[in-house]
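Subject: design request, 332 residues
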């Protein structure tokens, strides 16, 4: 396992981050959950943790409660890095407000059964909200000892720069982390467009049109936590480029909406070619491509079997040449 450091956090962070928005973990906190559901969730988290993945991605509406119960049962909170998110819009209103930021963070602390969140992010941005209010709310949580590092999920790099300029001008702490979509697949449409009624759309830094954003992250040293790193199963190897229509049987609606397109099918075909050449799996090639980028970066994924977990770890050691990296991304 590879680990990195980020500004504002003493713990090492695994470059593979386990995404907790998975059916097995949802089942454990459902109204009709059984003891067996909890045991199954705990077993998955045990396997992830024993493999060396110490960083877990949660949000106000997923992962927190089961993570809190698991960490309490295993007495391992000090060994885990918890990334969680708040201020997501709901069906009635925009929630990127100082009240919601503070309220969601305090709720998250209770659900996680902890007194401090390692990495806290706003789940969405709303450019109607002034960055000063946001930066001051996050700094208040930091001063109260409730969060360590902080940043934004689905924030453009321009908004992060604006927030950090405000922080510098007012002698406050800046954003040091960000979680946009990033991976080999282009995000051609907002996977959760319905959520954007009261907030800005999802943000991706994938694809040739986002070279400037990736260069900005490399220059600024802000760590990227890349969500949907395997495009919600597009590069899982569960279907092939020869029969791409099989994706409709395997991927969810968000995955199809966000990533199913001709250019990503071609990227999948090239992954298959390299996977055969190197004797590895398609998902490993796609992950190796991510770790070949010139950024401080962690990849979020949600493997559900021990084999998938260790395949992902092995992918970190798979070396791609400069030409292979360009070729996979259709830069011929």
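Subject: RE: design request

Done. Sequence follows.
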């Amino acid at each position: 396992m590879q680990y990195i450091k980020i500004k504002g956090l003493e713990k090492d962070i695994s470059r593979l981050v386990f995404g907790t928005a998975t059916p097995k973990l949802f089942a454990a906190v459902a109204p009709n959950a059984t003891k067996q559901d909890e045991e199954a969730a705990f077993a998955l988290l045990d396997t992830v943790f024993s493999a060396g993945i110490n960083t877990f991605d949660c949000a106000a509406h997923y992962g927190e409660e089961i993570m809190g119960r698991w960490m309490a049962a295993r007495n391992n909170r000090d060994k885990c890095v918890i990334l969680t998110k708040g201020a997501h819009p709901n069906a009635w209103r925009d929630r990127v407000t100082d009240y919601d930021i503070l309220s969601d963070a305090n709720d998250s602390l209770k659900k996680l059964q902890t007194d401090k969140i390692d990495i806290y992010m706003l789940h969405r941005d709303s450019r109607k909200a002034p960055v000063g209010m946001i930066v001051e709310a996050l700094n208040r949580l930091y001063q109260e000892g409730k969060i360590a590092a902080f940043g934004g999920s689905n924030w453009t790099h321009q908004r992060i720069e604006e927030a950090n300029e405000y922080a510098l001008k007012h002698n406050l702490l800046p954003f040091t982390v960000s979680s946009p979509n990033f991976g080999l697949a282009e995000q051609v449409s907002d996977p959760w467009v319905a959520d954007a009624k009261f907030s800005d759309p999802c943000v991706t830094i994938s694809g040739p049109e986002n070279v400037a954003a990736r260069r900005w992250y490399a220059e600024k040293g802000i760590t990227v936590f890349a969500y949907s790193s395997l495009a919600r199963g597009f590069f899982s190897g569960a279907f092939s480029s020869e029969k791409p229509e099989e994706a409709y049987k395997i991927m969810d609606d968000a995955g199809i909406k966000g990533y199913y397109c001709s250019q990503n099918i071609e990227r999948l075909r090239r992954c298959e070619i390299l996977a055969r050449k190197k004797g590895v799996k398609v998902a490993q090639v796609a992950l190796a491509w991510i770790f070949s980028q010139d950024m401080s970066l962690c990849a979020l994924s949600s493997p559900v079997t021990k084999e998938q977990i260790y395949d992902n770890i092995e992918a970190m050691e798979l070396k791609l040449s400069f030409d292979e990296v360009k070729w996979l991304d259709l830069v011929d």
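The longest helix spans residues 262-278.
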